Structures are given as C-alpha cells and as structure tokens.
Amino acid sequence: MTFEEIKALDHQYVMQSYGRFDVAVDHGRGATLWDTQGREYIDFTSGIGVCSLGYADEGWVNAITEQAGKLGHISNLFYAEPYVKAAEKLCRKAGMSNVFFANSGAESNEGLIKLARKYSFDKYGKGRGTIITLHKSFHGRTITTLSATGQDVFHNYFFPFTEGFRHADANDFDSVEAMAGHDVCAVMFELIQGEGGVLPLDREFVQKVSDLCAKRDWLLLIDEVQTGVGRTGSLFAFQQYGIQPDAVSFAKGIAGGLPFGGVMAGEKCRNVFTTGTHGTTFGGNPISAAAACYVLDRMDDAMFQSVQEKGAYLRSRIEALDLPCLGATRGMGLMIGIDVKGERTNKELAAKLIQSGLLVLTAGPGLRLLPPLVITQEEMDKGLAILKAALS
Ligand code: PLP
Asked: Which phi and psi (to 5°) does residue 73 adopt?
C-alpha cells in the first residue's frame, strides 16, 4: 500500500486519538527504519522505549517464532515454561521475590496500586487506600492510572475518576510529608519522570521518601515502565538509587516489541495476591514471555556499560553542537531529555527532525531520546548529523 492509501484507511476506520506524523513505517533493522516509500530513518525512539534490542534482532525473532510454533497461548489455569523462566530471571536479576505478569504499562501500574491497597487492607482494614504520587508524573491511561498521574491535563472528560490519590512535588520531601495521614498506604513514583519531561529525581529525596515509607509501613512503589530493562544503564533504575522498593512495575522494553509487563515485589508482598484476587487473560503469554527471556539474557554488565557510554556520547555531542534551539540535556543512560529554546516548540522541532530522517520524541516542553539500546556508533553519528543539519 502507498502512504496515502494507509493514511486514508486510518482516517476512515481508526479512532483519531493519536496525532500521527506523516510517515508510514514499513520495516527496520537495528536502529534504522524504512518507510513505505523506501526512505531511511535513524530511530532515537524505540517505539517509545519498547524495542530495546532494535528491530529484527535475529535471536529475538528466533525466540518468538520457535515459541509460536510450539504454544502461542495458554490460559493462566495451567502452568507453562516460558512465564516461569521469565519470572525467575527477573527476580534473580532485580533482587525481587515474585512477579505478576500483565500486558501494558498502565495495566502493570493498576496491579501495583491493587497490590498496595490489598497489602494495607489485609493488615489494617478499610480506610487506608490513599497513594501519594508526584506532580508531573505519568502512570497510564486507564481511569485509575490517570488519577494517579499528577498532571491536571489528564484529569478531564472521563469523570468520575478513581479516588484515593494525592500529588506531592517531586524532589520536595516536605511536600510528601505534608500528604501523610492515617489513610495513606503507599508512595508511587518514576525515578526519572518520562512523559513529564525526562526529569530525574534527586537521590537524597528518593532515599528520604524510602525511609519515610519504612517508618510508616507505606509501600514504596516504583514505576519502571519507561526506566526499566537497561534503559538507564542498569537493569532497573532503582538499582542506581540505593533503595529496595516493595514493588516495581515494568512493561515497554521487557519483551523487546511484544506486549508484556507486570509487577514484581519483595517478600513483604508475597501473599497479597491470593487466588482469584487479580488476573488477566493474556498475562504471561508464552510468546511474550519467550521474548522477555531472550531480552533479559541480553541484559548483562557489558550492555549496561555500553548504554551508559552511548548516553554520555549523545549528550556531549548534542551539547557541543550548541544549536540555538536546544539547551541543556539531562537523563540517565539512553533516556535523554533536551531543553528547547527559542521560538519553535518541541513539536515543531520533532516534526522537522522526522521529516529530515531522524525519529525523536517530545516530553513535557522538551525533546526526548530513547534510542534502541543496541544502536551502533554509525547510527548515532548519522542521527547527530541529521540533527545538526536540520536544526542549525
Ligand atoms: N508508566 C510510565 C512511566 C510510562 O512512561 C507509561 C507510558 O508511557 C505508562 C506507565 C503507561 O504504559 P502503557 O502505555 O504501556 O500503558
């Protein structure tokens, strides 16, 4: 199909909830994509942090095709090898005790919220279901995860929203403490606020909140949907913050391009989800779990080291370009935010870059880069050359 045919069908038959760019992507390899007209793009987005191993990774393709030829789906009424292997790998590598598998980030965060509320209900009874989250956070698009999200722009149209969330200011411990009350059961945050603008939390703030949680028996819930699976230069970002969360959500990069996600928790929460209290038809799907096993096997120290080096390289080169429309960079590993200066908005700059052959994302008022973790030196340099030419 031509680009025009695809676009026409989209407009006729698909609900127009996405503001799409005028590109129809056809296929990819590594961190390079081609559109339906054969034009090449360097990808600094990974499908918003999903394609951690880039496109068409041979081992990944083999892992999922082999599993598809064996068992494509089986209900959670039965045991199967792929999901137990994925669970074991995750727990061992992340230092957690047990996992619940889901399919998306929002659904994983729903699990995180339910886990915290039931933990508290089991121990203290009703009336202790409030969760403190942060302004500028993003936790998903379901009614409850929209409530958890600390941005008013998301609290519209879909009334009534789920009760039981209070929003504090990031990196302001007093603001979190001010939210305390007999009704609180947990604090939940991203360690780098992704959609909010790639805003890393201060280490001291995170450690103080962690101590407060321990003191009050609030669960410390970390949303690693965007920061997880090697993105920041460690398997999970919390491993660089010197904290041990009670439960962590993950999704996006975990299966390298298939829908997968979940919640992993420490020993304290082992017996919270008892039979029948939580579930989902596709959770732990064998093909997605086989993909996750493959992705997790690729997450070793050499991968984390290269993610840190590539992130530092991209940031230093972008800052050295000293472009009039771009300011400081921030982030960890290959999760990079860039300030936008001058008259053009981040959306205008992103559109210009995409038109010029470099896929980038926006976040808050800035630009955001989430390249595949396996991006090569040549691909990074090609992307930087496009950036320089398009924005100079
Ligand atoms: N949590 C965070 C931190 C995210 O960045 C996102 C998506 O961008 C979500 C949750 C929601 O994930 P999903 O779109 O898979 O539901």
From this structure: -160, 145
